[in-house]
Each structure stands twice: as C-alpha cells, then as structure tokens.
From TrEMBL, chain B:
It comes from the Bacteria. Coiled coil: none annotated. Keywords: Signal. This is Sugar ABC transporter substrate-binding protein. Pfam families: SBP_bac_8.
Length: 331, 427
C-alpha cells in the first residue's frame, strides 16, 4: 500500500506555476489560450495513464473497504445474503466474546514485548556494523535476510521443527543435560517462540538504523572525544538523541506491522491459534470467525476495530513523540 | 503532442483496454457453454491429496467418455483451504455444480440453502439405506454418501509382541484395560503404548457407551459428567506414561498419520478412521490391525458408527442440475467409477458396486472391509450433526488442551466446552 501511494505521488504531473498574464495585445492572448488548451490535453493524457491505478484503487481497495464497513453491521454467513443487525457485532465483541478479548491480549503482549526487543537488537547490530567493518555489504545482506523470510510459510514451518520436542533447541539443551519441553505445543512457551521469530526479523529496522547512523556528523564525536567523553557517554548524548527520529519511524512501522501479524501463528499453531489459544493473534481469530465459523459480518467488524485500534495507537505514538523525539532543527 | 501522436496514443489506450477486457473474459467462467459448442460444462469441487486428484481426473475422463455432451471441470484444492474456497464461491454466486462436503459441514450448507434436494434425482436404491439417511436433513436428501469409515483402534501387533504383551480381546475390553495395556507397553521401554487425539468421534463413541447422544437436536447431548470421565482417560494415560505428555501429544496431534507414533513405529496403539489404515500401514511398513474401541464398564453398545467419508452434493443454484445429478449418479452407482476410485472416498456403500470391485481392492482395504462387516451389527446409526459442527473439533481440542496443561479444572473445562459448543451449534 505504501508503495502504491508513493507511486501516485511520483506520477502526478508536475505543473509549472501559472503566471498571471499582464495586460497584453490580442495576439499574445491567443497564445496563452493555446497553452491552456495544451495543458488541459496534457492533464487528460495524464489521467488516462493514471487510470489503471485509479481503477485499482477504487475497485480493489476503496470498494472492498467500504463494503467491509457495511458488512460489519450485518449478519453475513457467506452462504446467505447479509442482513443488517446494527451494532450487534461490535456489542458482542466487547461484552460476550471471551476469545476476542483473549486474542487482543495475546496480540498486545506480542507487540509490547517483541517490538522493543526487535528494535534494540536492530540498533545494537547497526552500531556494531557501523564500526567501518570490512565486508559490510555482505553482513548487511546476511542480517537483512531474515526480514525477507520472516513472514514466510517456510520459516514458520522451520520454527515448528526447531522448537519441537525433538527439535534443534532441545538437542542443544540436551547437551547441557536440560530436558526441554515441546516449546510450540506448550501454552506457556508457544507465544515466546513467535516473539523470538519476530525479533529475529530485525533486518529491516537495522538497515534503516544504519542509514540513520551515517547521517550523524563525525565532527560531533570528534568534539566529544576532545572533551574527554567516553564511548558510552557519546552513545547516550550524541548517537541516541540524534537517532530518535529514526527510532520513532521504526517504532511506528513495526507496531503497525506486528499488530497485523498472521502467518507466523497460523502456521506454527496449525491454523488454530493453539495450544489453548496461547498464540491466537487478532488477525488469526478474525480469519477463523470469517472462514471457519461463517461469521463474516463479525469478522468485518473485527477488522474495523483493528483499524481504529492501530490508528489510535499510531496517534498516541505521534503525540508521545513530541516529548522524546529530537529533530535537529528544534530548540 | 501533435495530432498524429495523439491518435497513436488513443489507439494504444483502446487496444490495451480491449486486451484487458478480453483477458477478463478468459479469466471468468464464461457462463459454461461458451467453450465446446453445445457441450454443457459443470464443475466438480473436491479436496484431498495428489493421489486423489489423479484418480478423480481419471474418473472424470471416464464420465466424459460415457457422456460426450457433458464437460466436467475438476476443481481441486487441499483440505485446509477447501471450505474457504467453496464458501467464497457460494457467496459470489459461482458455486461449483457438484461439491464434496463432509458430514460436519452438511447442516451448515444445506441449512443455509446452498444445496439442492437430490431426492429422486440421483438413484439411491442400491446404496446402504442406513448410511444414506445421514445425508438427509428435514427429510430432504441433500447429500449422497461417497463411502464409509469407522473410527476405531488401530494397533501394531509386532510392537505389542516386542513389549511382551498380547493383542487384547477387542469384543470385551474396557477403557481401564486399554490404559493398563498402554502403561505396560510403555513400561517395557522403547515405544509408547498409546497416542490419543481429542477427536469428537471418540467422544461421541464414549458418550454413546454411556447412553448419551453427542448432539440432541441443536443442543449438546453429552453431559458434563461424561466429558469429565472422558478427559480422565487422557489424564490417566499421561500420568501412567501410557501416552506422551500433553505438549508432545499436542505436537503429534497437529500432524497426520505419517508422523504419528503408530506411523513411525514409535507407538503401539492409536485411534484413527479406518481409511487411514492405508496411510498408517504404508508409513510404518508394518502390518497393522483394526480393533473395536474399548467399552465403558457395563456398556450395552459399542457406540461405534459408520460415518460417510464424505458426501457428493449439488449446488442449489446450479444451471445444470440434471447433469450434476448424472455425475453424482455415475460416481456412486457405476462400477467403472468405483473401479478407479476404489476406497479413496471410503468403502463404497453400493452393494452391487462393492461386489464388482471387491477383488480389486488392495489387501489393506480388504481387511478394513472385513472389519466393517464384522462389527456391522453392533454399530449405532449416524445422523448429520447440526449447523456449527464444523467448529466442534477446534472447540474440543482447545478445551482439552486447557485442561491437560492445567489451565482449568475438569469442572471448568466441561462447563466452558458445553457453553462454547452449544453456542456454536445454536447459531
């Protein structure tokens, strides 16, 4: 979605500012009109070329979004036509549905634990890589790899194997004489394995941190060194404050992304959110409601609650950012 | 932009627009008849493995040979995404003409008006009449059973022998004896006695042995007492190490027969549908034996039942109901079809067809057939469970897990299960 939005920005025809024509002889006026006609034609051409994107936007994105808003007020089984039920779905969600609240809890724990961990990890590695390491592009690519793979089905299956009773983790623990459990099939540890999976995909924020670190002028560090500031002191007083906009950016992005996590829990739990609902992500429950219980209206309502929730959180994030994010230009 | 280049541009736009609509038309179904002159085209949706897909393609070919005016398009998907696909297609008014459905989904689809009444349209006189009734809802024959399975105990005699244990007399054994046997096998070392799976079929059998129905109309018929007794079997198995602990069991339960203890020769006994004997035998490479389920103390019935492996149904909105019925008729009543499919969709219930293909069945299927014949007189009748039964497996599994992992007490688990299950089937 971000990609398509930026696309639209880049293809919007640039318009030169229209100069106020000063009083002129009739001959010149005609030329201006011709220029206007020309511009209009150009605009029309632009819209023709933009049409595929607009069609996509309205047919594939806006249309279904509005339809889901309508469906969220209905009882819709997929097999029969939808019937309006007003706010029943929303009401049921917060008053009767224990599993809804459970899924909200699981997802919140997942986001609150895994996002800070992931960002800390990404920042630590970015700092290490920023030391002018030889073969930096190689390491950067290697560490970025999990980000590309992390959301994939293959990795989720791998995860199930690694954390299984006879998996890699237990073999390693076995070397130390510790008897492990079935990590993914024990409700106390299953969510933990998913959090580790998420932290492991630190590559994307790491690359952004790396770019951010490069933006910090070397002269600050030199000045600090002259004043006798230690490395650690430099990190807290120079690196971190100047990096806050980047941290903020990563935070907003990762919070939005991890609230929508689906694949990991779907595959690792075999599509059930189990064991005992311990990995029941919000989106997974939404999917189960829509496609397994045939309550598509309810699922649509859940989608809208999620949207509002994420929008609200992002808003809170932005408001809070005033107090901790340091943009170089403000005092 | 000069006029000629403008013209070129518009030509390009028009051409590409035309191409796009053309492509769109190709992508859609085109209404059916468009493709092959006056041939009628119907779609047939089913789920399963690659092996089933190959067999089904052959059957479709055979059908088309016999009915040159009908063109059948197989619509295959794997089990995990099957119902999503079907539900979405029904919602889009594009339901397949013939759909495979299993018993738990029947009430959902029939009750919501997605299925056509097949009474009198598909000849069913030769089919097992008792099994046939399981495809009826409110007296209408919405579904024709493809074949039958029985949920039963499968054991590996050679593993039992190694543990110095004997095959039990399955006509009289009790749950206590089964747990004891599992404990002794595990105790001998090397293998695990039994694996369990919170399958609703097992609960249904157990409830029937205690004189309770699983479903009573649109309410749960099974009592909290029975649930607790049933769960105590799980708990005792774990305590006595007759089966793996809860985490390991949950892990195995998430896989299929190939990775089960029985399938990997790591266990001696497990409960499976009789048609899974094939996969289990293949992956273990051993000769396995079908046994009756153990009984509750003093039970008057075995509680076991024959369940249709799946049903053939026709869409209520099909444009070609006659052709759809013809295909179903062919699939269940024609020996040629059964000669290809054999027991892929359960053992055929059409007596004539079964007699014709009996000798072609592989040894494992012959064994299953013999077993089914043997227990036939003890079986309970099967009725289609109510709407929402598709969720029963999930609900039962979740509550069983919560109990076995010590998150809730048996009383809480029973109450929670009944509340959730009742809500699911009432809705």
């Amino acid at each position: 979605m971000y990609a398509s939005m930026s696309d639209s920005v880049s293809v919007t025809p640039e318009r030169a500012p229209v100069a106020q024509p000063p009083p002129q002889p009739p001959g010149r006026r005609r030329r201006v009109r011709q220029v206007n006609v020309h511009r209009r034609r150009e605009a029309r051409t632009a819209y023709v070329f933009l049409a595929p994107w607009f069609i996509g936007l309205f047919v594939i994105t806006v249309g279904p979004i509005l339809a889901s808003l309508y469906l969220s007020f209905t009882d819709y089984s997929l097999l029969e036509p939808a019937t309006l039920v007003g706010l029943d779905n929303y009401d049921k969600m917060f008053t009767e549905d224990d599993r809804f609240l459970a899924s909200l809890k699981v997802t919140t724990i997942y986001v609150v634990v895994s996002v800070p961990l992931q960002l800390a990890f990404a920042l630590a590695l970015a700092l290490a890589l920023d030391r002018g390491l030889r073969g930096l592009p190689f390491y950067r690519s290697v560490y970025y790899l999990p980000s590309l793979l992390g959301g994939s089905v293959a990795i989720a299956i791998l995860w199930r194997k690694i954390f299984g009773t006879e998996g890699l983790v237990n073999s390693l623990l076995g070397l130390f004489g510790i008897e492990g459990t079935g990590w993914v099939s024990d409700p106390d540890t299953a969510l933990g394995t998913l959090i580790i999976l998420h932290v492991w995909t630190f590559g994307a924020p790491m690359v952004i941190f790396l770019a951010g670190l490069r933006q910090i002028p070397q002269s600050y560090y030199e000045a600090a060194a002259v004043d006798g500031a230690s490395r650690i002191r430099q990190f807290w007083s120079i690196t971190l404050p100047l990096l806050t906009p980047i941290i903020f950016f990563n935070l907003v992005l990762e919070v939005i992304k991890s609230f929508q996590s689906f694949t990991q829990s779907f595959i690792v739990s075999g599509g059930s959110g189990g064991p005992a609902d311990s990995t029941l992500f919000y989106t997974l429950y939404l999917y189960l409601k829509g496609f397994k219980s045939y309550e598509m209206g309810y699922a649509a309502a859940m989608a809208w609650v999620l949207l509002l929730l994420i929008a609200g959180l992002t808003g809170v994030n932005f408001i809070a950012s005033k107090y901790w994010v340091f943009y170089g230009d403000t005092k | 932009m000069n006029p000629s280049s403008r013209k070129k541009m518009w030509t390009a736009v028009v051409v590409s627009a035309a191409l796009m609509t053309g492509a769109g038309a190709c992508g859609g179904d085109g209404g059916g008849e468009a493709a092959g002159g006056d041939k009628v085209r119907i779609t047939f949706a089913y789920w399963g493995s690659d092996a089933r897909q190959k067999l089904t393609d052959q059957v479709i070919q055979k059908f088309e040979e016999k009915n040159p005016t009908i063109d059948v398009e197989g619509d295959f998907s794997n089990w995990d995404s099957y119902y999503e696909k079907i539900a979405t297609k029904v919602a889009a008014n594009d339901a397949p003409d013939v759909m495979s459905i299993e018993i738990r989904g029947l009430s959902e689809y029939a009750g919501r008006g997605a299925l056509a009444d097949l009474s009198g349209k598909v000849p069913a006189a030769d089919l097992d009449q008792q099994v046939l009734t399981s495809g009826q809802i409110d007296g209408k024959q919405y579904a024709i059973p493809t074949g039958v399975n029985a949920f039963s105990m499968i054991a590996n005699p050679s593993v039992l022998e190694k543990a110095k244990q004997k095959l039990p007399d399955d006509s009289s054994w009790t749950w206590d004896q089964w747990i004891g046997l599992a404990k002794d096998i595990s105790g001998a070392g090397g293998v695990t006695g039994a694996e369990y799976n919170p399958n609703p079929a097992w609960l249904q059998i157990f409830a029937a042995q205690r004189g309770e129905k699983m479903y009573d109309g649109t309410k749960m018929g099974v009592s909290a007492e029975t649930l607790k007794a049933w769960w105590s079997i799980h708990q005792r198995l774990i305590e006595t190490k007759g089966s793996p602990d809860a985490a390991k069991s949950a892990e195995i339960g998430a896989t299929g027969p190939e990775q089960s203890l029985l399938g990997t020769n790591a266990g001696a006994m497990g409960m499976w549908w009789s048609n899974q004997l094939n996969a289990l035998s293949k992956s273990s490479g051993q000769e396995l034996t079908l046994l009756r389920m153990p009984k509750a103390e003093g039970a008057s019935t075995s509680g076991m039942f024959l369940q249709p492996a799946m049903f053939y149904t026709a869409s209520a909105k099909s444009e070609h109901p006659a052709e759809a019925a013809k295909l179903i008729d062919f699939l269940v009543n024609d020996p040629d079809a059964a000669g290809i499919l054999l027991s892929d969709r359960g053992l055929p219930t059409n007596a004539k067809v079964l007699a014709a293909v009996k000798d072609k069945l592989p040894p494992v299927d012959q064994k299953t057939l013999a077993f089914v014949d043997q227990v036939k007189s003890e079986l309970s009748p099967i009725v289609a469970p109510p709407k929402g039964a598709l969720q029963m497996e999930d609900i039962l599994k979740r509550n069983t897990e919560e109990l076995l992992f010590g998150k809730v007490t048996p009383d809480q688990a029973a109450q929670k299960f009944l509340a959730e299950a009742n809500a699911a089937i009432a809705g």
